[in-house]
Amino acid sequence: MKRIGPHLVLAAVLLLVFGGSPSVRGHGMGKPQVLNQPAGPYLLSAWTDPDPLRADETHVVVAVIDPANQEPIVTGVEVSVAMTSLADPTQQVIETAGTDKVNQLLYAAEFNDMVSEGRWRVDLSVDGERGAGDGVGFEVEVGPARTFNWLWIGVGGVGLIVVIWMAGSMRDNSAGKDKRPRARPPAR
């Protein structure tokens, strides 16, 4: 039986852990909150991501649509997203949404570690060549921040086991190559 080399095993483990899934750490569209709501000379749609929102990860993705042709407007506008705590209205965070990393037709605002657990009001406004538009909003529930991620402890443990196994395997292979079989003394 042919032995699998430790380098091949390490490569397979690293591929599974770090490259096995093509998921992107960014965000996509998420959960729809408002769709094609009039805001001055624009239509606005908004999604939140992830679902459910967490205090350590809160994204609002906005589409600005031309009402005449239903085409997205991707240049010449500035989109603002304001989040206001319903428990404490003095707690407000406002972000200017930049072009989304995943979908260049959308605008995204990230509120990671800026909001706390609870109910929040999200208000959208847009300003551009055609004028300004606001008055589109919705409420969301933000859950607690993620607790310690045990997955990374598991990944680290598996990695440590593989490294120890490889070190032992290499030592055994190198020791086996240098030793010659001993001659047995003649039987009496």
Specify the CATH class of the domain at 31-143.
Answer: Mainly Beta
In CATH terms, what is the architecture of the domain at 31-143?
A: Sandwich
Q: Could you give the distance between the termini? A: 37 Å
Structural class: alpha+beta
List segments where confidence is low: pLDDT < 50 over at least 5 consecutive residues.
Answer: 11-27
CATH topology descriptor of the domain at 31-143: Immunoglobulin-like
**How are the strands ordered across the major sheet?**
2-3-6-5-4-7-8
In helices, the fraction of residues equals 10-25%
> At the fourth CATH level, what is the homologous superfamily of the domain at 31-143?
Macroglobulin (MG2) domain
Number of strands: 8
Task: Summarize the helix and strand pattern as letters.
Answer: HEEEEEEEEH
- How confident overall, as mean pLDDT? 83
Tell me what portion of residues adopts beta-strand conformation: 35-45%
Coarse morphology: elongated
